[in-house]
Design a protein that fits this description.
This protein has 15 helices and 13 strands. By secondary structure, it is α/β, with parallel strands linked by helices. The chain has a 7-stranded parallel beta sheet, sandwiched between helices. A 6-stranded parallel beta sheet has the order 10-9-8-11-12-13, with helices on both faces. The longest helix has 18 residues, at about 330-345.
């Protein structure tokens, strides 16, 4: 069973793993909360697996709600006689891990970023790390998506002997194939992320307003779910003013990648490994991002993109100006260098093979701590 906190976590980034498991004859279950954005049963049926609706209060801190989640995972594992559990995101990692430990089910955690609760010192970090220590005691493996996150867990004494490093979630190099680099006078920039302050949306919008004053041939696009009413009003206002074009959430990103000249990801969120950057690089698009773990591993400054300081609008503007000063062939070559890098280092098959290797060790008794 694969357990996560959303349909996207399972099917957007782990569909290839599900396919590989099914090809080997395994019966695959997926566990995540039902969402207004999709039907888990339909998505699972289309993927040839079995869906279990598992409500999760992703940002909640109510201990009674979390105890219900622990009981739910325990019941699911026992009733469906799960042989191996793969968990993703914080609460499935913690409560799925504890449940699997209690039920004697081998399990593998995936740390896809620390999250603000873990990264920022305070009582919430203290509680979350204590829970992680309990959950990780009998884990067969804990996969990390970047070395900084792994070092953080090692520093706090969490299952250091059973850790592994993956190239993020990897990228499907067939789905995100190399696209011709666009020609023409207009330069299109893409921001693709949830509309959150920590994803750098403020810096992107401020930079767009500044750049558009001196470079009217530029177009700044914004794609992503927005649940904050203040940001909704801001995005609508800036779209009306011609500063940006807001397209809302999109399932198919390839048409936007095709017209894009560059992806801008000014995040300071605790990333695992940025899928936005991996997918854009796979399409042959240059990148502008922050000097942040989960981003700097993908971008070599001046080779396949440019790096700016987090939370620094002026430095972001400077990097955009630097990009605009490049010739067309220099921009194209940046994109080609990015594609070559993801082919070498970030192919999703690397991730799939790592999980299949763990499954091959299913008979091994997890080390006790």
């Amino acid at each position: 069973m694969l357990a996560g906190n959303s349909e996207m976590v399972i099917f957007r980034f782990r569909k290839e793993l599900i396919d590989a498991l099914r090809e080997k004859g395994h019966r695959v279950y997926v566990s995540f909360p039902q969402s207004v954005f999709g039907d888990g049963h339909t998505a699972a049926k289309n993927a040839g697996c079995h869906y279990i609706n598992t409500p999760i209060a992703s940002h909640g801190t109510n201990p009674f709600t979390d105890l219900r989640l622990l009981r739910s995972y325990t019941q699911i594992l026992r009733e469906n006689r799960i042989d191996m559990l793969f968990t993703y995101t914080i609460k499935p990692n913690i409560y799925g891990g504890i449940a699997a430990s209690r039920c004697g089910v081998p399990y593998v955690m995936n740390i896809s970023g620390l999250g603000t609760a873990v990264e920022n010192p305070g009582i919430l970090q203290y509680i979350t790390l204590r829970l992680y220590r309990i959950a990780a005691r009998k884990a067969q493996k804990i996969f990390f998506q970047n070395s900084e996150n792994r070092a953080f867990f090692q520093k706090h004494g969490i299952a250091a002997a059973r850790q592994g490093l993956l190239p993020g979630s990897g990228v499907n190099l067939c789905q995100y194939h190399l696209l011709p680099y666009p020609k023409g006078e207009k330069i299109h920039f893409l921001f693709m992320a949830r509309i959150l302050r920590e994803k750098g949306i403020d810096q992107y919008l401020e930079a767009a307003a500044i750049i558009r004053q001196t470079h009217p041939q530029t177009v700044f696009h914004v794609l992503g779910v927005c649940t904050d009413e203040t940001y909704r009003r801001t995005l609508a206002q800036l779209t009306d003013q011609g500063v940006i074009q807001y397209h809302g959430p999109q399932n198919d990103l390839l048409p936007f990648q095709a017209m894009s000249s560059c992806t801008i990801h000014p995040t300071y969120y605790p990333e695992g490994m940025s899928n936005v950057l991996l997918e854009s690089a796979a399409c042959g698009r240059p990148l502008i991002t922050t000097d942040r773990s989960g981003c700097r591993e993908i971008v070599e400054d001046g080779v396949n993109g440019l790096i700016c300081r987090p939370r620094d609008t002026q430095d972001l503007v400077a990097q955009i100006e630097k990009f605009l000063a490049l010739r067309w062939d220099q921009r194209r070559d940046m994109g080609l260098a990015g594609r070559a890098r993801v082919e070498r280092e970030f192919d999703r098959q690397i991730v799939v093979d790592a999980y299949l290797s763990e499954l091959a060790d299913i008979d091994r008794q997890p080390a006790m701590v």
